[in-house]
Amino acid sequence: MTVHSLTGTAGDAIASHRVARAPWKNPVCVLKREPVANLLLSGLPRKDRQHVLARCEPVELKFADVLCEPARRISHVYFPTASFISLVIPVNNLASLEVELVGNEGMVGVPLMLGVNVSPLRVVVQGPGPALRMTAATFLAELEQSVALRHNLQRYIYVLLAQLAQTAACNRFHALDSRLARWLLMTHDRAHANEFFLTHEVLARMLGVRRVGVTNAAGLLQERKLVRYSRGHITILDRAGLEAVSCECYKTVKDTYRAALG
Amino acid sequence: MTVHSLTGTAGDAIASHRVARAPWKNPVCVLKREPVANLLLSGLPRKDRQHVLARCEPVELKFADVLCEPARRISHVYFPTASFISLVIPVNNLASLEVELVGNEGMVGVPLMLGVNVSPLRVVVQGPGPALRMTAATFLAELEQSVALRHNLQRYIYVLLAQLAQTAACNRFHALDSRLARWLLMTHDRAHANEFFLTHEVLARMLGVRRVGVTNAAGLLQERKLVRYSRGHITILDRAGLEAVSCECYKTVKDTYRAALG
DNA sequence: CGGCTTATGTACGTTGCTGCACGGACGGCG
DNA sequence: CGCCGTCCGTGCAGCAACGTACATAAGCCG
Predict the structure, then answer these.
(1) Protein residue closest via CA to C1' of D17
(2) What is the pTM of this model?
(3) Separation of alpha carbons B92 and B89, rounded Å
(4) Cβ–Cβ contact B30 with A under 8 A
(5) Residues 6+ apart with CB under 8 A from A93
């Protein structure tokens, strides 16, 4: 993992870093991106925000970097801006299932807030790009400092709980087509780009199904002109169409977030 | 201390959910019970514990009482002692899935700790019996008072998160037999009795499957002499056998709890 | 006892996904 | 250009769970 710090405080420019240098092979991803801020931080009162941002280190996350393994100590918290990160639970060293997708609406490292310094899940970079990070110790100090930060992050944990429950139900009841559509929508929201890199293989591990299952479901979405993909590059063509195919879980989760943090 | 029944308070609005007769009155369940304390409270330092307990109201929960509906305000928090409570997510007003089972190792009303006063889930009494409860306001005041309480409950939320992730994976990957076995084990832990009341119908709604599916799976467990049941009365005969049939998720979750709160 | 309600058992075709296997196609690279 | 690794597509048998429908059995009440 390459981590280069941009010296100088992020100041009030919040998280509007300059755009990443080619995160993956295809530059198109980057070109379509606009500067993004982390919503948990940008919502803070000016003073708290500046204080926190001054202690954040901008980093560039690379695709497939593993930021933490289950049962290992959490060294840093991450606030993605244009990157996004999967929280994955491995099962039997074989299968795995994504239980949470974190983009600029969230953070990684929640257990620290709860008095625990190990992660229960595997943390994998799914979408390359910039993020802000803090050491665990600094983070805890900031929590002491800022009531607003505490407040925001507590509500974020609430959203997380609700979202986990919804995802569990979704995995249980909804067909693969719908779940795939939902996943693409969530990713679209967090990628801040119409195109992103994701092979069927990776998608399969996220959704907890066979690679071929994804191929079929994706074929269906492509037939209907909702997405286009080729060798890992997925392009969203028709959001509304995807929302129609996806289950209500997508909307439900988004509403929960808006109600608690919007 | 006076023991208040729920009937006449919150219970009235929801009493319609009760089943016609009263199988939960079966004395066998009760006879086998020993006095139990709530572990989140019993672990507190003496002084804090007394302070909290003095502000708790003992209540007797009845089977199938609905303590809270999704998106409704949380009026009380509950610390089950010998009772246990399901957190259920309804889907499409038809199916539903249990995402959490709370007994004397936990509490109901977690969102209050996170600055949110509505529940994302339906809260249903699964096992009748005593619990301690506090009004939302009192609870928040107690949180201010006691660092130890805050600490304990934060860690409990951590366990909750890990558990939700594990359950999601379990629902995705494991066969019904295993999941049923796991569920029975979890219930056994919380019921503090070898026998409890649960029809296949109810179990099916918890596991998110057809009633017939439960009948088959349960038949298998009974063939192997692991459980015995008749018209809603399930008796655990062979815990070790059940653990063998169940998936590792049971052990994993239990270990997580022990590590964080044991 | 007889009638009713609730709980459990059985049966059958259907479906969505699995496990496995292999064929083809695109793109990077020498 | 041609090789080769990665990624995508197809085919097929198998299976667990689904939806539906109906049949028995156990307790409750009059």
Answers:
(1) B213
(2) 0.89
(3) 10
(4) no
(5) none
